[in-house]
From TrEMBL:
A zinc finger (unnamed) spans 3-34. Its cofactor is Zn(2+). This is Transcriptional repressor NrdR. Binds 1 zinc ion. The gene is nrdR.
Amino acid sequence: MKCPFCANEDTRVLDSRQVEEGTAVRRRRECDRCSRRFTTYEKYEDAPFLVVKKDGSREPFLRAKMSAGMLRACNKRPISTEQIEQAAFEIEKSLRNQHEREVRSFEVGEAVLDRLFHLDEVAYIRFASVYREFKDVQRFMEELDDLRQRRASHP
């Protein structure tokens, strides 16, 4: 593995661990030349999994894109990056189990909302305001009322 810092091809593995429920391997490496450490991941290659957008176009499902949206919603909230990454992994796993090759963007958004509902209600509202494209305060208040009702029925 080539060092990302000095491009040296001689690196050594310091530690290997299974991650993502055994579907990937995380390796801590150290460069023999510059002694800097870095992390690599080894993962099997899945069949293409596509997201069907509102306009009918398709693009590859990218967990990183989904995680980025979740991170923005969780900004300055008491939620760790590890919690967000784990939630994103579980959402992707669930979607892949439910759908063979394609998933509608609507289903991805709803899965993220459902997970954020259980993690943090402020993050949930932040994500919902962008995802559901609130046009005015009235729509925002309706979503808050829905959140209150849902919280009352799911203590």
